[in-house]
């Protein structure tokens, strides 16, 4: 029962259980259950597997530091911040030239919610083909991920934008993922408007 509970709660909730002395974690369990990624992504084993295949996730914004801090200095964090909401901005990349087709499909369809969008999947595979077709494409270059968000999330497909994910493991996190345009992917850049910079 204990393991089932720990498997089903977010990292922050697990840290609060430990802080209240309702649960004692071994060093190995701390490594497993007190990972910040567990507050953002439902399928952590997929993240670990795809990270070995070259996927990189980058957290941006003021909330990124607090996400880690609240897991390892929980009492101090709760005393100063309580359950205040954290805003996290997430960027993802993977190598343009991945080892196998199976790996490629898993990387393209990866979603923080665990639910991929088929239309987005085909659009991203098409755009990856366009990036690969550019004559001077760096063999070690990276491809910006869209986290398989719904196609209607992009109000203007010619411009990259931030999309707010509704289904997040920890209820105190507002997670925004970057959805790149083809131009962003070709130029290997993330475009930020002044409002984005202020929010972060």
Describe this structure in words.
By secondary structure, this protein is α+β, with helices and mostly antiparallel strands. The protein is built from 10 helices and 5 strands. α2 (11-19) packs parallel to α5 and α5 crosses α6 (74-81). The longest helix is centred in the middle third of the chain and has 16 residues, at 118-133.
Name the features:
five-stranded mixed beta sheet, single chain, 200 residues, 10 helices, alpha+beta
How is the topology of this model organized?
Elements: H1 2-8, H2 11-19, H3 27-33, H4 44-52, E1 56-60, H5 63-72, H6 74-81, E2 86-95, H7 101-108, H8 118-133, E3 142-144, E4 161-165, E5 173-179, H9 182-187, H10 194-199
Parallel strand pairs: 2-5
Antiparallel strand pairs: 1-2, 2-3, 4-5
Helix pairs in contact: 2-5, 5-6
